[in-house]
Structures are given as C-alpha cells and as structure tokens.
Specification:
Layout (H helix, E strand, L loop, with lengths): L1 E7 L8 H11 L5 E6 L5 E2 L3 H6 L7 E7 L3 H13 L8 E4 L1 E4 L2 E8 L5 E2 L10 H30 L1 H4 L1 H10 L1 H14 L3 H17 L4 H4 L2 H16 L4 E2 L7 E5 L4 H5 L6 E6 L7 H9 L3 E3 L4 H4 L5 E5 L4 E4 L3 H25 L4 E2 L5 E8 L5 H6 L5 E5 L2 H4 L7 H15 L4 E4 L26 H6 L1 H15 L4 E5 L5 H21 L8 E6 L2 H5 L1 H5 L4 E4 L1 H9 L17 H16 L3 E4 L10 H7 L3 E4 L4 H10 L3 H13 L3 H15 L6
Parallel strand pairs: 7-10, 10-11, 11-12, 16-17, 16-23, 17-18, 18-19, 19-20, 20-21, 21-22
Antiparallel strand pairs: 1-4, 2-3, 2-4, 5-14, 6-12, 7-13, 8-9, 13-14, 15-16
Helix pairs in contact: 1-3, 4-6, 4-7, 4-10, 6-10, 7-8, 8-10, 14-26, 17-19, 19-20, 25-27
The structure holds phosphoenolpyruvate and magnesium ion (MG).
Magnesium ion (MG) binds next to helix 23.
C-alpha cells in the first residue's frame, strides 16, 4: 500500500548535493520504492542523488515523499525525520587538523578539484540545452582523439600491451549508455554539461568503490581519468582557477604543492585547508611565509566542505569550523581581532630592540626566505639579515630552467633590499617534496634520492651557473654560500671543488667576486651530525636544518600527516645530535646557527639558547618579535639550566610540556 508524507525543507541551502546524498543514502537502506516530488516538479526517484537534485527544492519548499513496500512506514518516519533535522546539514562541524600557519579567518570555501579548478554547480536555462549538448559532444570527441593519440605514442614507445590501457578509456567514451546518461542529465534535468559529467561519473565511482572485486574497484582510477579529461575539455579557457578569483575565499584542497602555494594570490586566498599535509613540509613552510592562516591533515575536507560553505580557520590551534553558527562567528571575529592586535603590539614593542638576554648574551635573529619579496617583511620585523635563502623556489614557479642571469637578478634584487646586511644563499635543494615542473625522473623515495647537493653534483651545468651567479652577486653585497644536505666530507669537498673551478674561470674572465666568500653547510643529515667535527674543519659555518635532521633521524617523513605525531624536535636523539653539532662548531671555532622550523617555534627558544646557539634564522617575519621577546626575558644562565633539564628527560612529550610551560609564562597568548 502506497503511503505519503508532506514535509518542508528547512535547511539554509535547500536540497543541494550534500542533503540529497544523505537523503538518497538513507532511502537506499529500505526495500520500499521511494519517490519525492514538489508542487512544481514531477515525481523523482528518492534513491537517486541526481534525481533529487533536479527537484531544485529550496528552503521553504514543501516536498511530498511517497513510499511503497514492506518497510514503507519506517522508511517515511526516518526520511521525514531527516528532512526535519535539516539533513544534519546546518549543523556546525568542528574539525581538528594540523596547524601550519597562524591567524584566524572567516570566509566562504572554494573547493578545488584534483585538477586545480572548480566545477560550476549550476542549472542551465531551457534554451541553453542544445548548446550544452553540443559542448558535451564536442568535449567527448576531443577527449577521444586525445586518448587515441596517447595510445599511439605509448604503444610506439612502450609496446602495444601498455598502449592498450587506453583502449578502455576509449571504450568508455564510446559507451552509449554513459553518453545517454550525460545528455539526459542536461536535457531532462537542466544540468550544465560539466555538472552532468561530474555527477554521472561520481555515481559510477561510488558504485565501483563499493564492490569487493579488486580488479573492478581499480577501475575507479580510469573513471577519474575520464572525468578529468572531459572536464578539461569542457571547461577549457573558462576554468575557474585559483588565478582568476574575484572574491576573497578560503581554499579547500586535497593537497597543495609548495609552488602552488607560492603562487596563491593572497589578496583573494585568505587561508587554506587541505586533506593531507604536515607542519614541516615545504608546503607548510611556504604557507607560513605567505602569512595566511592554514590548517592541513583534515582527512576529508574536500568531501565534507562544499563550495560556498562558510568556514572558520583557526590556524593557531589547528581548528577548522565548517558552517559555523552566528554565535561562533561572533566569537571568532573577536578572536581574530584580538590576535592581530596582539601581534601588532608585540611587533611595535620588540622589532627594533636587540635580541639580548637579561645577562647580556647577544643573539642574531635573521630571516628565512623563499623569494626576494620576503626580505622586506623580515627586515621590517627586525631581522638583521637573511640566514637562509631557499633558491630552489626560482625553479618551482618556472617552466624553463632558470639561467645564470635569472639567478643573478634574484640575488641582486635581494642585495639591494639588504644593503650591507648579510644573506646566506643556499644552493639548490631540489627533490624531496620540491620538484622542477619539467622533471619527469620521479623517484620511488625522493627524500632519500637524488635530492639537493646530490642533484647539483650530478648536474654540473646547473650547479655552476648558480655558483657563478652567487659569486657575481658577492662583489656587491654581504653574500655567503650554503650547501644543503651534505652527508659526508667527500661530498663537501666535491662541492667546494666546483666553487674553486668557477672562481678560476671567473678570474680568467676578469669577473669580480668576493675571493673570501664564506662557505657553510647545512647540518641536516644524521651522518653529517656524526662527523660534524671533521666537517667543521673545512667550512666557515654550520646551519642546522632541523626539519630534515628530525625527518632523517627519526625516520619520519616530514610531509606525511599519518606519522606527524612521531615528528618531535624534543626527541632525546635530536637533542643529543644538536649538542654534538654545537660542540663541534665551538671546538673548531666556526659560526653556527639554526634555520630549521624548530628555531622559530618559541617553545624551543630557551632550550636552543641554553644549548649554546646565538644565531636563529626564522620565518615568517611575524615570529621575529616573538623570539626576541623570549630571549630578552631570560638570562643565559637560566637558559643553560633549562636545556640541562630538558635533556634529562627521555620522553619527548614530557620535554615539550616542560618547555611549553616555561614559554607560556613569557607569552601566554601564543602557547595554546
Ligand atoms: C631544514 O631541513 O631544516 C631546512 C631548513 O631546509 P628545508 O626545510 O628547506 O629542507
Ligand atoms: Mg632541509
């Protein structure tokens, strides 16, 4: 017997994709047939997400739900309850992720698809249907041609067996049933071609994902490929990309590479959240440099947050609030204001004061940069120079390999900004999680592969052109060279031989440079820490790269949120290595500083000071006044005691808690 219920849609956004998904999922749990209709639209299948969406039921619309079957009564009770509960839709959700960049922001979400663009989710007008179908057909035929070309070239290069992988994709695009479904969505339901493609394929993806057969579930990858190809063809120039944003938004993405983050337009992108990521990846480091709040490692942000949802990012605590209620928004508006007022006050009080302990031990605070444009903010917050210039960012944003002139121009621009202040230019650290876009030598284990100095030693042309540019720049400014990822004395000597060779060539060509340019190395590989006393005899300075030192010592991938809880600067192994490195530098009378993120985390400042460090290179710029405040609040004697106590613990959590409590007494506003 068929039964029915009338119920009003109450949630703010109406029956859009997420509520429709919830309704259909629930309806599918019952054996009865379930249908839904509104005053204006005819009955649709209540178990189909796409059908439900076509009702276009806005807030306030009354829907009629009918059920027919053995469990009709209970089905209607449950579905009515779901609608009355606003599909649990307006419920605010609070998520905890990994805080990577501080600050608070409240904006609407812009959800990026995996290809980096947004699919317009809109309905079309009746008179646009023909045009839309034509677009769909054109896109399908272009995609088919692309795949055929790919199949040909792959077969030629790798053999027909490999090439035949693409035959499946071609068959899918010839599938009459699939094509019919696309055009039906456009024709019958007035969906845009992009939206129709995406919805139909997503339904298939869901179906495939739910099957037990591993061969069949692996087909999901093929469907994603087809979806991307069709969307690329459909959206063409119209793609709504990050580059063309017109409003201020919070970007929600699965992941963002360091170069994607570096090229964000921060006048529009006011913050971002990602499904994966960690605090010490290069993406996180660049995010902090941009000065926009960011939280990563949220797991399913791209699935649960919809474009247009209001989102709060609390980058201080690593909290993201989706669809906040009015009370929460007000609360965060005031937190946002207080945070910026506090930072402003701290900056004006400390930026121009020297970093000196209460008993007169002087410390240098320098800035870490990825681009010359970051120098201004560092210096204006009180940096007395640049302690780490990550020059590989010149490569990350570029299609072609940067020339000697490109390097030279970037260094000259930096020197112009700095005047006589020092700049430590680190030679290329490509590989790991930073790749030149044109690189197609993907390694299985890039952090342990041909990364950094290894890459340079294997590519003398690239290495020498950078060294020439640094040396040319040294004629005009206070420039030092820093080699990354040195893991042995032999590697250091090889790198230094290159410098010697380039110097000889430049002498012959009569090009000016600083003959006494200082050469230093990053100590960021455990082997380098272990032989630091040997290395110290052949360099002018050490710069401790704790980001990699921790990753390599503790065997914890710095970019992987799954093991982020194991990544601890306070691990006794790290503290012992730090002591060893500092001792080697002191005994050999060379300078030593820290440029890893640990140096900018204020809970560790007193510990590092007490271990003997007098040079901190930190980022982002806003951290400089914070570090200064801590240094100016303690004596060196007290810092040594703190370091001794910290080194006596064998549980990193205990050490961190001890250090946080001390820092909290000095800056309670910043230790959460
Ligand atoms: C480090 O490893 O600590 C470091 C400063 O280098 P990067 O973060 O660029 O690898
Ligand atoms: Mg490093």
């Amino acid at each position: 017997m068929l039964i029915e219920r009338r119920v009003k849609i109450l949630n703010i956004n109406g029956l859009h994709a997420r509520p429709a998904t919830r309704f259909a999922e629930m309806a599918n749990k019952f054996n009865s047939d379930i249908f839904v209709r509104t005053e204006e639209k005819e009955e649709v299948n209540g178990k189909s997400i796409i059908d439900l969406l076509t009702l276009g039921a806005k807030r306030g619309t009354e829907i009629l739900i009918t059920a027919d079957g053995e469990d009709e009564e209970i089905a209607l009770d449950v579905l009515e309850g779901l609608v009355n509960d606003r599909f649990n839709e307006d419920n605010m959700e609070t998520r905890k992720g990994i805080a990577v960049a501080p600050g608070v922001v409240i904006k609407e979400a812009f959800v990026l698809e995996s290809e980096g663009y947004r699919i317009p989710r809109h309905l079309i007008k009746e008179d646009e249907i023909d045009k839309e179908i034509a677009r769909l057909e054109e896109a399908t035929s272009s995609a088919w041609k692309e795949i055929e070309k790919l199949e040909e070239s792959v077969s030629k290069n790798l053999g027909s067996q490999i090439g035949s992988i693409f035959a499946t994709h071609k068959l899918m695009l010839q599938d009459k049933q699939l094509m019919r479904e696309f055009s039906e969505r456009v024709q019958d339901n007035n969906l845009s071609a992009e939206y129709a493609v995406s919805l139909v394929l997503r339904v298939y993806i869901k179906k495939f994902e739910n099957v037990d057969d591993p061969y069949l579930s692996a087909r999901v990858g093929d469907i994603y490929d087809i979806e991307k190809r069709l969307l690329r063809n459909l959206l063409g120039e119209k793609r709504e990309e990050l580059k063309n944003l017109t409003e201020e938004v919070i970007v929600v993405a699965h992941d963002l590479s360091p170069s994607q983050i570096a090229s964000l337009d921060t006048t529009k992108v006011r913050g971002f959240v990602t499904d994966i990521g960690s605090r010490n990846s290069h993406s996180a480091i660049v995010a902090r440099a941009l000065g926009i709040p960011a939280v990563v490692g949220l797991g399913t942000a791209t699935v649960d947050i919809f474009g247009g949802d209001r989102v709060i990012i609390d980058g201080n605590r690593g909290v993201v609030i989706v669809r906040p209620d009015e009370k929460t928004i007000k609360e965060y508006q005031s937190i946002e204001k207080d945070f910026y007022v506090f930072e402003e006050k701290l900056s004006s009080e400390f930026k121009d004061l020297p970093a000196v302990t209460l008993d007169g031990r002087e410390v240098s605070i320098l800035g870490n940069i990825e681009f010359p444009r970051d120098i201004g903010p560092s210096v204006s917050q009180g940096a007395t120079g640049i302690g780490l210039y990550r020059t590989e960012f010149l490569y990350l944003g570029s299609k072609d390999i940067p020339t000697e002139e490109d390097h030279f121009n970037a260094y000259t621009q930096s020197i112009q900004e700095l005047g006589t202040k020092p700049i430590i230019i680190r030679t290329l650290d490509l590989g790991g999680d930073k790749f030149f876009p044109a690189n197609n030598n993907k390694e299985l284990n890039p952090f342990l592969g041909c990364r950094s100095i290894r890459y340079c030693l294997e590519n003398p042309k690239i290495f020498k052109s950078q060294l020439r540019a640094i040396l040319r720049a040294s004629a005009a400014g206070n420039v030092k060279i820093l080699f990354p990822m040195i893991s042995s004395l032999q590697e250091l000597r090889q790198a230094k031989d290159f410098v010697k060779e380039v110097m000889e060539e430049m002498n012959q060509e009569g090009i000016d440079f600083d003959e006494k340019i200082e050469i230093g190395i990053m100590i960021e590989v455990p082997s380098a820490a272990m032989v630091a006393d040997d290395l110290a005899k052949e360099v002018d300075f050490f710069s401790i790269g704790t980001n990699d030192l921790i990753q390599y010592t503790l065997a914890v991938d710095r970019s992987n949120d799954k093991v982020a809880h194991l990544y601890s600067p306070a691990h006794p192994a790290i503290l012992r290595l730090l002591k060893m490195i500092i001792k080697a530098a002191e005994e050999n009378n060379i300078k030593i500083g820290i440029c890893g993120e640990m140096g900018g985390e204020i809970e560790y400042t007193i510990l590092l000071l007490g271990l003997g460090l007098r040079e901190f290179s930190v980022a982002p710029a806003m951290i400089i006044p914070e570090v200064k405040k801590i240094i100016r609040s303690v004596t060196y004697e007290r810092a040594k005691e703190v370091a001794e106590t910290a080194c006596s613990y064998n549980d990193p959590a205990e050490t961190t808690e001890y250090l946080r409590n001390i820092a909290r007494e000095i800056i309670p506003e910043l230790i959460y």
